[in-house]
Amino acid sequence: MTRTVLITGGAGGIGRMLLDREPRAGWRYVVLDPAAGPELERADVTAVAASITDPEAVRAAMRGVTDVVHLAALGQENLWERIVEVNVEATRILLEAARDEGVGRFVYASSHHAVGFATPAEAPTGGLPDDAAPRPDTYYAWSKAAGEAMVRLFCERFGMRGVAWRIGHCFDRPHSRERLPVWLSPGDARRLVDAALENDIDSFTYVWGVSANTRRWLSLEGARRIGFEPRDDSEVYADLFPEGSTDPREPLGGGFTTTPLGEPWVEPAGRP
Ligand SMILES: NC(=O)c1ccc[n+]([C@@H]2O[C@H](COP(=O)([O-])OP(=O)(O)OC[C@H]3O[C@@H](n4cnc5c(N)ncnc54)[C@H](O)[C@@H]3O)[C@@H](O)[C@H]2O)c1
């Protein structure tokens, strides 16, 4: 069967990781992102430069789509009104269009910040469960928890299969020592999404998006439930960062737990 996967926000960091592969027979991708340009176009990739906040553009892009990977979002703290418009309202627009098109799988890019107040001290052996109750650390994180619940609504009502992908820290390499436990490598991100789209999965599953990190304290149970086993380990980068004391009461969300609510996030200077 031919699969056509709509990747919202596919011109961003994670979208490019997912598209960084040889074309596969029977698989096509449609990238919906205002930043999508001709450089993304390939035989198996169509780029649509439009916003998920535009219902007409979403419906047009959804035509013929079998699966959705929903990455598009404001990815940090922002004005409440903007968060609601882009992260919440547009997710509803997308889900309604997906339902009407008969989409089978919906992979939702949630975030570890949806549970940002959890601490390593509270994690049981085997790691903090994938379906840990939301403990959002910002309006941004609240919108991710709301999005998870909205995806679940559409799965339970309309028979879509959904994955709430609680992404850790997904970059080419970790940016700091604090992020080592929650790093998700590009290869593991791609394999996780492949598993969510191809394997036999439940109606709705929460999955922590983390690699097989030596310092991991988030469970891999959800990953295994969708048939995904991470391969990479952030420990290979540990020497890049000075060792220091580790407080097991330090919250998962780090700096997001204290950033002012509703104020656009400003990237700290000097970050790679
Ligand atoms: N990278 C991480 O470590 C990480 C961690 C947790 C969660 N996430 C989530 O994963 C998703 C992707 O993250 P990323 O690191 O690739 O972010 P990114 O900022 O690199 O890319 C996001 C993309 O979304 C697009 N976008 C923004 N508004 C849009 C709109 N209205 N319509 C369509 N596209 C729009 C942007 O143009 C951008 O290309 C986000 O939802 C983010 O919240 C990422």
TrEMBL record:
Tree of life domain: Bacteria
Family stated for the protein in its record: Belongs to the NAD(P)-dependent epimerase/dehydratase family.
Record carries keyword DNA damage: no
UniProt-annotated stretches for the region Disordered: 239-272
Species name: Microbacterium nanhaiense
Phosphoprotein among keywords: no
A Pfam family reported for this protein in Swiss-Prot or TrEMBL: Epimerase
Protein name: NAD-dependent dehydratase
Record key words, sorted: NAD, Oxidoreductase
Lineage of source species: Bacteria, Bacillati, Actinomycetota, Actinomycetes, Micrococcales
Domain Ketoreductase residue range list: 3-139
Entry-linked Gene3D superfamilies: NAD(P)-binding Rossmann-like Domain
